[in-house]
Amino acid sequence: MPADRSQAPGPPTISEVAAEAGVGRATAARTLGGYGYVSPELRERVLSAAEKLGYRANALARSMSTGVSHTLGVIVADIGNPFFAGVVRGICDTSRARGFDTIVLSTYENLEEEIAATNVLIDKRVDGVIIASAAVGRGEVAHIKAAMDRVPVVLVDRAVAALDLDTVVIDNRDAAREAVEMLITAGHRRIGFVWGPPVAKPPATRRELLAQASRNLWTDGERLRGYLDALDDARIPFDPELVMAGRKTEERATAEVARMLAIPDRITAVFCTETDAVTGALRALRAAGLSYPRDIALIGFDDSAWAAVMEPPLTMIAQPVHELGAKAAQVLLDTLEGAEPGRETHTLRSRLIVRASVSAPPAS
Amino acid sequence: MPADRSQAPGPPTISEVAAEAGVGRATAARTLGGYGYVSPELRERVLSAAEKLGYRANALARSMSTGVSHTLGVIVADIGNPFFAGVVRGICDTSRARGFDTIVLSTYENLEEEIAATNVLIDKRVDGVIIASAAVGRGEVAHIKAAMDRVPVVLVDRAVAALDLDTVVIDNRDAAREAVEMLITAGHRRIGFVWGPPVAKPPATRRELLAQASRNLWTDGERLRGYLDALDDARIPFDPELVMAGRKTEERATAEVARMLAIPDRITAVFCTETDAVTGALRALRAAGLSYPRDIALIGFDDSAWAAVMEPPLTMIAQPVHELGAKAAQVLLDTLEGAEPGRETHTLRSRLIVRASVSAPPAS
């Protein structure tokens, strides 16, 4: 039954809108309040009725009830990676201590999901955003720039060349260099790099490899540069055959390490840049009947409880994951509380945890 | 400079409110729009000015621009646990395929954080909520009931006795029973249970143990019941000395397995209910100079890439983590799309992945 507005003394109410639309009051309230689910058809009817009656909600009252959201939004590339789970923990602990809640979205390395996630956070009116972005090129950062127009944004884990804003990362290049130097000091010269840029065609030259790396994630590129730094310092010639090509999956790492073990002048050491690369490499060693550190040396990212209980325990790079998240939250919260937004890159130091997966290469 | 409203032709604008408050237009827009951070003092000034001028935002326009949020909210006990990361992935994949975004909050097993997280999700107007709750007793569920008054809620991973609503879990009791049966079939009768209820004083009797379990997480209690089921079926007497007591940490698991290895009639097998319990147990074995499966058998939750590359590889229970999340999202989305909200418990089956960490006990 349409509401008769001719007798109404004040502005239309939600009940009147509901009656005009022929829906329940709860449905009208949800539609007009913007919370909860309402089917598109009913929503349309409520909005038409509201327009017809000239309904206006009291936004001021709502703003006073919800207030400042005191919520940080976090976008990570893959919450299933224990590295990012640790970073999120650092963000949550710091923001909680300063009175902010934290909501997290995971993009699974998909740029379109990242754009959608950014929109969700702005739509949900978070006070600031921390992103570990999958964006690389200048053409992929429009969503981050749009977010920056609304709220402060801090990058975590991954620098993005096209963006000039506060960034909190670890010393990927130095960490990789130190690990590969340790392998070289132990006597290794044939050192596999797992994994490289995710390309279909393996790079034939060092220049091509670096060009591919620069079109991919900053983190991966830095780790590759650290590997090359260590080779250069020791005057070990670069061999493209020792760099993994293809998609960055555990299965692929297994296949590529198997390939590097099968070539005539085989690898005697392997450097892995991710946990899945480490477990992939270990599968290849077992399949080839090889043991570490006797037959092959191994160092990888990231240290974990498992790496410590392997027999022998693995020498691993430990990233300061909690500190990384805590620092990103601190930089963001300082900005929210009045500090000038910076354009600084904060670099935290990782640590090489020396255990027992590196010894001299087998006598050939 | 206060705005002079006497000449104003229409309703007051944001710019007029800003002028009245003596703040910038952006600050007024953020305050009145309810997004972004504004200091409490400036907010107060803007709201006073808005009230004085009779400012009303057009909520209808906002409702049309933001629309239904098409966002699911997820609260997990610990996003740092790969189990929950896998569940979240299942939720995200399913909700994405059906046009919904997913935002996640992690409570780190803290009930107060869970209450805050629930409020955040309602405040952010998600369309539905999935919770792996830390709540146990009737007195701990008021926040979930309050959420249920606003949006559909589905429980995942953990049933809560005081709540009668759609719940998606795995067959914890059967999974534990099957694993312990495998140990018994291999000849073990002294089987450690790591970990039990997190209590200061170890339980002295079976009844006390079960009473403590019922005051703790449903999942842990179910796994304990499965352990006891298997012992009962084999007529193996229950020995409270073989149940871990104390906080559920890797360090504590190490200390408790060391204790169980040091008693005269020592354990010959250990059943671990969490990944951290497994790595804790493995540390204790190494410290005691024992190898599995020769000196001791081991089965644990949850299977992982690491468990598969251990030498020997570990026999583990694989929970259907992705399916668990996907099912919870499906049940919630079906409700949002008009299905009657159920009060059903959906139980998914786990799998025992048999590898090489179980053999007969050492001859005594």
From TrEMBL, chains A, B:
Q: Which domain of life is it from?
A: Bacteria
Q: Does the keyword Repressor apply?
A: yes
**Database matches in PROSITE patterns:** HTH_LACI_2
Entry's transmembrane regions: none
InterPro entries this protein is in? Answer: HTH_LacI, Lambda_DNA-bd_dom_sf, Peripla_BP/Lac1_sug-bd_dom, Peripla_BP_I
For this UniProt record, give its keywords in alphabetical order, as a comma-separated list.
DNA-binding, Repressor, Transcription, Transcription regulation
Q: Where is the HTH lacI-type domain?
A: 12-66
Any one Gene Ontology molecular-function term assigned to this protein's record: DNA-binding transcription factor activity
Q: Which PANTHER family match?
A: HTH-TYPE TRANSCRIPTIONAL REPRESSOR PURR-RELATED (PTHR30146:SF148), LACI-RELATED TRANSCRIPTIONAL REPRESSOR (PTHR30146)
- Specify the protein name: LacI family transcriptional regulator
- Give the organism, scientific name: Nonomuraea glycinis
